[in-house]
Amino acid sequence: MATFNRSLRHPTKLLLLLVFSLASLFSCTALEKFEKRELVIEGKERKVTIKAEIATTQAQHEQGLMYRKSLKDGEGMLFVFQSDQILSFWMKNTLVPLSVAYISYDGRILEIYDMQPGNLDPVRSSRSVRYALEVPQGWFGRAGLGVGDRLEIQGL
Questions:
Q1: Which end of the chain is more exposed for a tag (fewer CB within 10 A), N or C?
Q2: Stretch 71-100: mean pLDDT
Q3: What is the CATH code of the structural domain delimited by 35-151?
């Protein structure tokens, strides 16, 4: 024990220990990178394009839009799942208000819900869906989109 304490008194060793500890911490919490695509949603009156990050892996699904300080209208994140299922999203570590659309396997928007920053209450789909699209809160209405409109899902 005395040897360990003596070695930490040396500033270079202490600095190296601190650097390696911080590097280890950051490597464990590294943020996922997302593919970006322009997606088209066909509404009743027009088509709308959105720039979306695509979340396909479990790690990407877990990270989502956490820690983002802003999200512009016309931007969002599409969560892609391998099979239809009841989905549930919450806003842990999410700093901006969002709307989430639950979308069927064929691209039809089935439900849209608003979510508040930091709220840990789950927002569940009432039916099995394949996709979830998160956007700035209220964007669907501002873009003239709603339940029944279709996301073009070719290549997803």
A1: N
A2: 97
A3: 2.60.120.1140
